[in-house]
Amino acid sequence: MKRIIFIIISLLLIPSCSSRKTEIYSPDKNIRLRFNIDNEGFISYNVKVGGNIFIDDSRLGFEAKDGLNLSNSFEIIKTEFTSKDETWEQIWGENKVIRNHYNEMSVYLANEDSVFLTMRFRLFDDGLGFRYEYRIKDTDKIILTNELTSFNIKENGTSWSIPASFETYELLYRTLPLNEVDNANTPFTFKATRPQDYKTTSKSEAIYASIHEAALTDFPEMTLRLRLTKDERQKVKGFEEKFRVQSSEFKVQLAPYPDKTKAIFEKDNFISPWRTIQISDKAVGLINSNLILNLNEPCVLEGDLSWIRPMKYVGVWWGMHLGVESWVMDERHGATTENAKRYIDFAAANNIDAVLFEGWNEGWESWIGTSETQGGVSLHGFDYTKPYADFDIDEIMRYAKEKGIEVIGHHETGGDVISYENQLDETFRWTKEKGINCVKTGYAGSLPDNHNHHGQYNVRHYRNVVKAAARHKITLDVHEPIKATGIRRTYPNMMTREGARGMEWNAWSEGNPPEHHVMLPFTRLLAGPLDYTPGTFDILFENSRHSPLRKKWNGNDKGNSRVNTTLAKQLANWVILYSPLQMASDMIEHYEGHPAFQFFRDFNPDCDWSEALQGEPGEYVAIVRRAGEDFFLGAATDGEAREIAIPLTFLEKDYQYETTIYADGDDAHWETNPTSYKIEKKTVSSSDTLFIKMAAGGGCAVNFKTL
How far apart are the first and last CA of the chain? Predict the structure, then answer.
C-alpha cells in the first residue's frame, strides 16, 4: 500500500505525457547516451560513440547527512524529450555567433524517502552534459557528503592533465596513460584508442574527449580520482584480466569544507553544475567546441553593455616578478605617478587600450600571504580606496583620460575574502567614480577558517564579486580564481582569469617548458579565456638579470630563470592563448623600437570568429582568429622543430591579403638562440597554402590585411 501511495503522489506532482524510453542521441546520431536503473533503484548511464561503447556503465547520485537517500531506491516516474536549434550572440568571445543545437532527455525519478530527482541530459554533436536537479520534501537543509558520479572510460589511452588540487591550478601538465592518472583536475583531456573492430566512418584512430563542468555557481569544484589507483590495482591479483572495464574508471571528488562535508543548502532543493564530456575525432575539435558556453544561462545583464569591451594592455607588473620593482612603497616602488605616466604615454603611442597598475594601494607592506582575523577584524592592511602617497590617482586618471587610455585597477586580497566582501560595494563605487572600468583581482594566500580556494564557500565568494562588479559596471580579470565553467555567458563582465601556470613562473623558477604553451589550448583553455600574460621579449633577462635592482626576492630563482620560448612564439601566443584582455607583459623599455612589436600594435583582441586548424596536445597547434576584416594566425610547437602547411581557405574568397609573417630565424632555437626572428611580407588569397617552419620551442604569427 505504501508503494502504491508513493507512486500516486509522485504522478500527481509531475506533469503527464510520460515516456519510459531512456536513451537519447545527438542531433547527428553519432553519440548515444542511455540512462539505466537497476532492481534496487541505483542509477547509472553509458555512452556510445559511432555505435560503440565509449563510457561504460557509470554510477550516478549523491550521498548526504541525516539519512537522506539521494542515490538509490529510485523509480522512473516519466521521461520527457525536447530539442533546440538556435543561434545566439555574445558581445565578446572567440566567436560572436554561436549555434546551440541539442537533444534533451529529462528523466523524472522519486523514491520512498520523498526525494524527487530530475536527471537532465543534453546531447550535442560535440559532446554531452548532464546535471542533477533534486527536491526533498519535509527538509529545510541538505548537507552533501559525497558525489557518486563516475566516468568509466572503456578503452585505455593517453591523457593530459594537472593533478587534483583544491587550492591551485598553477601546476605543470602531465602526459600519462589513462589508467595511470591517480587524480586530476578538469578539464581532463584524453585520447581513447579505438578498438580494431570499432564501427566508424571516421579516419581517426582515436576519440578525443575532455571531462569538465559547466555553470559552477553554488557548488564545490569537481575533480577526478581513478576508482582504483595504480597502487591499488597492483594489490588485486589478475586485475587487468578480470576487471579491464574498471581500469580507467574515474569518480568525482568534490572540494570539501573544513569539516569534510562537500556542500550545504539551507533549503529543500539544489541543482548541480553540468558534468560535461566534449567529444571529437580530432584534437582541435575540442578547442572549436562551444558546449561549455551553451550549457550556461543567457546573459542576465540588461541595458547598454558597451562598458564591457576587449582590450590590449601593458602594465606595471613584470618588473615586480623580476625584482626590479616592488609592490610596496620603497626605493623600488613600481606604481608611482611618474612611472604610471610613462606607461600611459607608451600605450597611447602604440595603439594599446589600457594600463594595469599593481602595488598602487596601501596594505602590501603588511601582506603575510595568509588570512588572519582577530575578533572578526582582518589583520591585513589592504585598503582598496587608499593609494600610496607616491601614486596620485586623481592626476593619473586625469592624464589617462587626456591620452584616451583606460586604467585597470588591482585588488589583491591575500585570500582575505571576508575583508574584501565587507569593502566590496564601497570599493567598486569608489573605483567607478575614479573612472576605472576594469579590475584585476587576486587571491594569493590562505583563506579564513581553513577553507580551500575551490570549495563551495569560495565559489560563492567569486560569484558575489562578479555580481557586485556588474552592479557597478566593472569588468573583471581574476587571478587565483575558481576555474572557468562558462559563467561569462551569463555575466559577460567576467572577462578572463588566470587558473594556470602563467608567465610569472618564468621570472623566478625553472619556468614553463616549451610544451606548456601548446598544451594549454587543449586543456585549460577549453574551460574559457586565460590571462596568461604573454609577450615577454627580454627572454634571457639580459637587460634585467645584472641590474643592481634585481633581487632573488623569494628564493625560487636559482640563477637560471628565463622564458623558454623563441621570440616568434611569444608573438604567436597572443593569438593562441585566447583572452579578451590581452597583455604585452614585458617592461615597456624592451618594446621600444622593436620591429616585432608591430604585431601587437596591429593585433585586435576583439575577435568575431576563431578556428583551431591543426594540432595535437603538447606537440603543436595552429589557430586563426578574425577581427573585423583582419585575420590573425598563431602557430607554435613544443621542444621539437616542426614544419606545417596551412591551407588559407578560411580567408574570404575573391579577396587579396597582404600578410606580415613574423617567423623564427633560420638559426633560432628556444635554448640557444631564442631571439632570432625574421619578418616577411607576401600577398596571398584563399586558394594559397602557407608553409610555416618553426624552430624548436618556436612559433609563427601572421597578420592578414585585405588589399
Answer: 80
> CA–CA separation, 389 vs 337, rounded Å?
9
Report yes or no: 577 and 534 within 8 Å, Cβ to Cβ.
yes
pLDDT at 558 over 60: no
Which of the residues 480, 504, 515, 619 is marked catalytic? 504
Which of the four pLDDT bands, split at 50, 70 and 90, describes residue 234? low
Mean pLDDT of all residues in 361-381: 65
| Side-chain half-sphere exposure of 167, counting CA atoms within 13 A | 9
The answer to whether the peptide bond before residue 187 is cis (omega within 30 degrees of 0) is yes
Q: Which of 450, 383, 473 is nearest to 422 (CA)?
A: 383
- Rounded CA gap, 526 and 212, in Å? 9
pLDDT above 60 (res 219): yes
Among residues 207, 229, 170, the alpha carbon closest in space to that of 52 is found at 207
Looking at residue 353, its pLDDT comes to: 98
CB atoms within 10 A of CB 554: 11
Q: Determine the Cα angle at 85 with ends 84 and 90, to 5°.
A: 110
Q: What is the pLDDT of residues 567-625, one digit of tens each?
A: 999 999 999 999 999 999 999 999 999 999 999 999 999 999 999 999 999 999 999 99
Tell me the residue type at 315: G
Query: What confidence category does residue 16 fall into, taking pLDDT thresholds of 50, 70 and 90?
Result: very low
3-state secondary structure of 111: coil
- What are the residue ranges spanned by the domains of the chain? 2-83+99-281
Q: Which three cell numbers stand for residue 654?
A: 575573391
Pick left, alpha or beta for residue 111 (phi over 0 → left; psi -120 to 50 → alpha; otherwise beta): beta
* Grid cell at residue 235: 594489490
- Whole-number Å distance between alpha carbons of 81 and 344: 56
Which three cell numbers mark 520? 594549454
Give the angle 537-705-696 at the CA atoms, nearest 5°: 35
180 part of the active site: no
Residue 319, H or E segment: helix 318-322
Q: Looking at residue 370, what DSSP letter applies?
A: B
Q: Residues 6 or more apart from 499 whose CB is under 8 A from it? A: 169, 481, 482, 483, 484, 524, 527, 530
What span, in angstroms and rounded, lies between the C-alpha atoms of 669 and 502? Answer: 21
Residue 550 has pLDDT above 90, yes or no: no
> Helices then strands (H, E): number in the chain?
14, 38
Contact 468, 424 (CB under 8 A): yes
Architecture of domain 2-83+99-281: Distorted Sandwich (2.70)
Ramachandran sector of residue 216 (left: φ over 0; alpha: ψ -120 to 50; beta: rest): beta
Question: Can you read off the three cell numbers belonging to residue 653?
Answer: 574568397
Q: What percent of the chain is predicted at pLDDT more than 70?
A: 89
The β-bridge relationship of strands 475-478 and 150-153 is: unpaired
Per-residue confidence band for 18, with pLDDT thresholds at 50, 70 and 90: very low
| Contact in structure between 154 and 53 (CB atoms under 8 Å) | yes
Cα distances (Å, whole numbers) of residue 678 to 570, 640, 688, 693:
14, 19, 21, 12
Mean pLDDT, range 49-77, rounded to an integer: 96
What would you report as the CA-atom Rg of the chain, rounded to the nearest whole angstrom?
Answer: 26
pLDDT, one tens digit per residue, over 99-150 is 999 999 999 999 999 999 999 999 999 999 999 999 999 999 999 999 999 9
Q: In the structure, what pLDDT confidence band is assigned to residue 200 with cuts at 50, 70 and 90?
A: low
